[in-house]
Design goal:
Radius of gyration: 19 Å
Mean pLDDT: 91
Length: 184
């Protein structure tokens, strides 16, 4: 792992808190450009093809232009909405182009997928899609109609707690499902 990977991960996870604190001293455009720079470094470093790098570079330039010209705090606050919708689309895509993400993780962990486990991972994928859509909706509500403090609290703490609880519940239940499959 490169030295900057954990730094980038922490910056992206701390984004709502950085926006909250940064807005006290900086214009939104500068915070947005810093975010774009972090995503650019991450995206360009992990991309493996020239076409992916070109796509990332195009997205980075569009995002940088948006943040520079809009200078919008609301634009900054909508980033978690976009991330949650992207996660919902990513999980949803795998329903039509299997295996689903949970099926891939289960197969990596256990080395096999039974029909019952495939059915389970399909249902869990639908649950994750719904979860990320709900989280995107709550992030949108906080971005458009709540204070900066409420937005930062939800998107910088509560949403992560909900994701952790969802993962922990799903993982615990998955272990139970796999245990039953092993003992049939």
């Amino acid at each position: 792992m490169r030295w900057w990977a954990p730094v980038v991960a922490v910056l992206l996870l701390a984004y709502p808190l950085l926006v909250y604190w940064g807005m006290q001293w900086l214009e939104p455009r500068f915070i947005g450009l810093a975010l774009v720079l972090v995503y650019a470094v991450r995206g360009l470093a992990i991309s493996t093809t020239a076409s992916r790098r070109a796509l990332i570079l195009g997205g980075v330039l569009l995002a940088a232009a948006f943040f520079w010209w809009s200078n919008s705090e609301t634009g900054l606050k909508l980033v978690p909405v976009v991330i949650n919708l992207a996660l919902a689309l990513g999980f949803g895509w795998t329903l039509w182009h299997p295996p689903t993400l949970p099926a891939r993780m289960a197969e990596l962990q256990h080395g096999f997928i039974t029909p019952a486990i495939k059915s389970y991972t399909d249902r869990i994928t639908v649950l994750w899609v719904g979860f990320f859509c709900l989280n995107a909706t709550l992030a949108l509500v906080t971005a458009l109609w709540m204070s900066r403090e409420s937005w930062a609290l939800y998107n910088g703490l509560i949403a992560y707690g909900l994701i952790g609880l969802m993962f922990l519940g799903e993982y615990s239940y998955r272990r139970l499902v796999f245990f039953k499959q092993h003992n049939l």
